[in-house]
Specification:
single chain, mainly alpha, about 75% helix, globular
Length: about 500
């Protein structure tokens, strides 16, 4: 049909299309085709060219108007910008928890296991990218897909028995993303409260931890009620500067606070229960897989994202090196007394340490609205679609939803007593599924569509990753819950 021809010509690169037209004209001129067929081909080519121009103009118009969720943004980022965003997404509260991570993994154990986990994360992220690229190729009119949409399309185009699961798998991914973001927001409340609590008590302000958290509620609530990201995104740059200042200052204090203890005084390896907590904290810190597809799709040259020395590999290498350095130094300096956030180990009597605690807490606090916005972006569209009141009064209902969600994150942060256990629980339960389990399932589904696509090596490799993931989920979640129950007792 005519539309089928249009689709085929649209997929042919411009140079190949021009060469094909020249070959057809030569065939016509040499008498290989009849005169009527020659005129038909010429008219068809002219119509196709005009239709292609119209499609390109329409596509350009869509980009200018912002397009949809599957249209490429007008501003395309460079490799450096994409690397910066990925680094920002990977370095947050988890970075300050690296001391506790090394306490649970041991100096040698954590130094060996962190790079292995990083390699596994990168490999799974590559599988996710491959699945997204193949899904885009099979979906007409789509330039890119985010994580949930990629999972949905991969199952939709997969083997027939799995196609009915496409919508369900998308909901599962969205649920894990929401729970992860919810955990981030609650952890931010705990991080801010614990640092400010020490500063308040040092300066003679004797109030409870719960009251300090209540004080932080209103400043966190106001920006989170804003429904437009452009009003809250400018603060993220200052938040990252504050976090970097807090990290550099904390490590500087760690080095300058007398001679470093001997490495022999610290555990090189740890037991199974502690390794379970290590695994959860490490996965929480590496949780940036939700950013992979949006960052790659926004690049000027998306192929540079996952090349050998591209954005993904180089950023993960730098992030892993920073994690190992921070965790190693923190555990050697403070040993078994290292806290869930290394800023809590600073001597609160010193003025500079108080400044570092406040600035680091401010940096995390300013990142709360951004993390909260990601969660609302997932929850709001289906709620609005299924609720008549939300369609009639969208702004009012969304503000009420935001208020309820902020209060829920505040309530969870108030109930869970320990920051490090909270981080380990979220990492073991949700981050492991998003980083390991879902990408492996995507790879299985994609390879099952190709005869002999699932070779012995791929099968063993995927089963090994799933085994590690399931062990991490079960042991990490169980141990985190056990430790949290102990804290309540």
């Amino acid at each position: 049909s005519k539309f089928r021809v249009l689709k085929i010509f649209h997929l042919i690169p411009q140079k190949q299309q021009q060469q094909q037209q020249r070959n057809e004209l030569k065939a016509i001129e040499s008498g290989e085709s009849g005169g009527d067929m020659g005129r038909t081909l010429e008219i068809t080519n002219v119509k196709l060219d005009k239709n292609l121009e119209k499609q390109q103009e329409a596509g350009a118009g869509d980009e200018e108007n912002g397009g949809g969720a599957a249209k490429r943004r007008g501003h395309e980022t460079s490799a450096l910008e994409a690397a910066t965003h990925l680094f920002k997404g990977s370095v947050g509260a988890g970075l300050f928890a690296m001391g506790d991570c090394f306490k649970n993994g041991g100096l040698a154990g954590a130094s060996i296991l962190l790079p292995i986990i990083a390699v596994m994360c990168v490999h799974c992220e590559r599988m996710l990218i491959r699945g997204s690229v193949l899904a885009v190729e099979r979906t007409p009119g789509v330039d890119f897909l985010d994580y949930p949409e990629t999972v949905e399309k991969c199952f939709e185009y997969g083997p027939r028995p799995l196609r009915r699961m496409s919508r369900f798998m998308k909901l599962v991914v969205e649920m894990f993303l929401c729970v992860t973001q919810f955990g981030f927001c609650a952890i931010y409340f705990v991080f801010i409260t614990e640092n400010l609590y020490q500063v308040f008590h040092q300066n003679g302000i004797d109030i409870s931890m719960s009251m300090v958290m209540l004080i932080t509620l209103l400043p966190a609530m106001i920006p989170s009620l804003m429904t437009n990201l452009k009003y809250i995104s400018p603060v993220s740059a200052f938040a990252n500067v504050a976090l970097l200042f807090g990290l550099i200052s904390t490590l500087t204090i760690a080095f300058s606070d007398g001679p470093m203890p001997s490495v022999s005084e610290r555990n090189l390896f740890t037991s199974g229960s502690q390794l379970a907590l290590f695994f959860g904290t490490a996965l929480f810190s590496y949780e940036g897989i939700a950013l992979i597809l949006p960052l790659r799709n926004s690049m000027r040259k998306p192929e540079d994202f996952s090349s050998r020395f591209g954005v993904l590999n180089s950023t993960m290498f730098l992030t892993t090196a920073l994690f190992i350095f921070t965790g190693f130094v923190s555990y050697v300096r403070w040993g078994e007394d290292v806290a869930g956030s290394i800023t809590l180990n600073l001597v609160v009597e010193e003025v500079f340490s108080q400044v570092v605690k406040v600035v680091a807490a401010l940096g995390v606090f300013l990142g709360y609205p951004i993390q909260f916005f990601v969660m609302i972006k997932i929850i709001w569209p289906p709620l609005k679609k299924s609720n008549n009141c939300a369609q009639k009064y969208p702004i009012t209902v969304q503000v009420c939803l935001r208020f309820i969600m902020v209060m829920m994150t505040f309530g969870v942060a108030l109930v869970v007593p320990k920051l490090n256990l909270f981080i380990s629980l979220i990492g073991a339960l949700c981050s492991t599924c998003l980083a390991f389990v879902i990408p492996v399932l995507i790879d299985f589904v994609i390879r099952a569509q190709v005869p002999k696509g699932l070779g012995v090596f791929s099968y063993i490799k995927n089963i090994a990753i799933l085994t590690v993931a399931v062990l991490g989920i079960v042991t990490g979640t169980y141990q985190s819950i056990v430790e949290i129950v102990k804290e309540f007792k």
